[in-house]
Amino acid sequence: MADLLRLLLRVAEKAANVARVCRQEAPLFQLLVQEKTGDDKNKKFVQDFKTLADVVIQEMIRHDVGAQFPEMASYIHGEESNKFENGLGESVTVTVCGTEKETAALLATVLDGDHTAASLLARAIHQDPATIDANTDGLTVPLSLSELGIWIDPIDATSQYIEGREEVLEEGHLSPSGLHCALVLIGVYLRSTGEPVMGVINQPFSYKDPAGGGWRGKHFWGVSCGGLNASSVPRPKDAPEGGLSVVLSSNEKQVVKEALTSLCGPDKLMYASGAGYKILCVIQGLADVYVLSEGSTFKWDSCAPHALLRALGGGVVDLTKCLQSSPGAQDQHTELTYHQPYPGGRGADRWANHGGLVAYRDCSQLHSIIAPLKGKL
Predict the structure, then answer these.
(1) Which of 35, 37, 258, 323 lies at a 20 to 30 A Cα distance from 329?
(2) Reduced to 3 states, what is the DSSP secondary structure of residue 117?
(3) Are 278 and 297 in contact (CB under 8 A)?
C-alpha cells in the first residue's frame, strides 16, 4: 500500500504538470479557452479541448497505475469517456502510448493535425515529475491490490480551471473561486464494501513562484483502513469555540441557506467553487462542514477527499439518508460508498451521489447540522 500511495502521489503530480502546461503553453492555452465560431464551430475537439485535457490526465493515471499494478487495471475508473471525434468525423480512442512520439502522433489525429499542440501535450504526459516528499515509510495496510478499485477526477472544478482567475490564497481562509479550486483527485476504495481507504489530492495552482512566475502545487494524502489512520494533514484539535462554520455552493437551496444561517450565523456561512475544493476546505479546517442538498456530485468527486476525512476522524455521508435516520445511526449507516452504481441510473448518473452529502471532521458537528435541516428538504 505504501508503494501504491507513492505511485499515486507521483502520477497526481504528473497530472498537475499537464494541467499547468495546458495553461502556460500558448498553443495549448488557445485551444483551452477559445470556442470556434462560423464554419469551424462543429469541430468537436476545439470546443471540447478542456475535456481532452481531462481525458489525457485520466488516461495517463490509468496507464501508469496499470503498468505498475496490472491486477488493478480493470478497476481504474474515471469521469470521462476516452473516445473523441475529430474534424473529419473519425472516432479516436485516446490512450497513452509506450513512447512520447507515439502519444504525440495519436493526439495529433484528435487535434486535426495540430502537431505543435500534440507534441507539447505528449511531452508533459511522458515527463517524470520531481520527487514527491511524503513520509510513507512503514505504512503497512493488510490489504491486497486485488481488493481495491480507483476513482479519478482528472480536473475537478473545470470551469474555474478554464476561467483561470488568479486569486491570492490567504493563510487560514478559504477563497470562493479561482484557479486554486481546480484539483486532481485520486481515490482508492474496497471493491467488496465500497469503503474509501486511500485518497490523494493535488492542488496544481496553489501559489506562484515569485522567482520564475510559474505555478507551484501542493499535495495532500490520507489512508484509513481498519485501525490505521494516517494523513499528511494534522488531525484536528478540539472543536474551536465560536460556532460552526459551513461551506456551501452559491446556488444551494434557499431553505438550506436559511436553516444554516439560523444555526451558524451569517458570518459563518461561506461559499466556494468545486466539490473537491469544498471538501478540502473541511480537511484543512478552513470550514467545519460542507453541505450539499443536490445530487450533483459523483463518486469521482468525493472518493479521494472522503478517505482523507476518514483518516482525520471525519467522513462524508448521504444527506438524505441522514435526514431519514435516527441520530445515533447517522455516521454508521449513511457514509457514501464507491463500489455500486445507482439503481436505474444511466450514464454518469449511475455514479452520482443522489442524496446530496455532508462532509465533516467531527461527528458532533455532523449531528448539529442535521437537526435544523430535518423537515426542510
Answers:
(1) 258
(2) helix
(3) no
Strand partners, 228: 225
Strands 83-85 and 91-93: antiparallel
Q: What are phi and psi of 281, to 5 degrees?
A: -60, -40
Distance of alpha carbon 266 from alpha carbon 278, whole angstroms? 18
Dist. CA 368–CA 1, nearest whole Å: 36
Using one digit for the tens of pLDDT, what is the confidence trace for 187-229? 999 999 999 999 999 999 998 888 877 898 999 999 999 888 9
Residue 130 and residue 115: Cα distance in Å, rounded?
26
Q: Report which residue type is found at 268.
A: K
> Residue 134 in 3-state DSSP?
coil
Q: Who contacts 58 (Cβ-Cβ below 8 Å, separation ≥6)?
A: 78, 79, 80, 82, 152, 154
Partners of residue 187 on adjacent β-strands: 151, 199
Residue 178: all three cell numbers together: 479561482
Match 444511466 to its residue by C-alpha cell. 346
Task: Note the pLDDT tens digit of each residue in 145-197.
Answer: 999 999 999 999 988 888 888 887 777 788 899 999 999 999 999 999 999 99
Q: What are the catalytic residues?
A: 54, 79, 153, 155-156, 158, 301
Exposure of 124 in the CB half-sphere (CA atoms within 13 A):
24
Cell 452504481, residue located = 341
Using only C-alpha atoms, the chain has a radius of gyration, in whole angstroms, of: 21
Q: Is 211 helix (H, G, I), strand (E, B) or coil?
A: coil
